[in-house]
Amino acid sequence: MPDSPMCPECGAEYSYQDREMYVCPMCAHEWPIDGGGEVSTTGSDADASVRDANGNVLESGDTVVVIKDLKVKGSSLVVKGGTKVKNIRLVDGDHDIDCKIPGIGAMQLKSEFVKKA
């Protein structure tokens, strides 16, 4: 691969072409072939927003509705579909909503199981 450039991140010479991008197998950095703006593999500002099951952007303080029955791990409780949850707080992680559910208490939910009210 004499025509593949060196990686701009780590300087490795083992980069290869994958569709419209060059990829470095040493550090997993990707950049466009045309040499345009840098492309980050860690995500962008658009990816940082938390979205509900319908694709609406959620913000801290919003009210959401649970869209399906959710079993509470470690107990026999169930959060019923249609339960309204007020004043959510967005957090980082797999379960990206921190809230208090009436009758159950403090919980963390995944945004894919709620819709904006």
Description:
There is one protein chain. With 117 residues, the chain is mainly beta. It is 3% helix and 32% strand. The protein has 1 helix and 13 strands; from the N terminus they run E-E-E-H-E-E-E-E-E-E-E-E-E-E. Mean pLDDT is 85; it is low at 37-46.
Helix content: under 10%
Structural class: mainly beta
Instruction: Give me the number of helical elements.
Output: 1
Order of helices and strands: EEEHEEEEEEEEEE
- Rg calc: 21 Å
* DSSP strand content: 25-35%
Record field, number of beta strands: 13
Any low-confidence stretches, pLDDT <50, length ≥5?
37-46
Globally, the shape reads: elongated
Mean pLDDT: 85
- What about the largest sheet? 3 strands, antiparallel
Our measurement of the CA-to-CA distance between the termini, rounded to an integer number of angstroms, reads 54 Å
Strand arrangement, major sheet:
1-2-3
Question: Helices and strands in order, then pairings?
Answer:
Elements: E1 16-18, E2 21-23, E3 30-32, H1 45-48, E4 50-51, E5 57-58, E6 64-66, E7 70-71, E8 78-79, E9 84-85, E10 89-90, E11 97-101, E12 105-109, E13 114-116
Antiparallel strand pairs: 1-2, 2-3, 4-5, 6-9, 6-13, 7-8, 10-11, 11-12
What structural keywords apply?
elongated, three-stranded antiparallel β-sheet, about 120 residues, about 5% helix, mainly beta, 1 helix
Summarize the structure.
The chain contains one helix and 13 strands. The chain has 117 residues and is mostly beta strands.
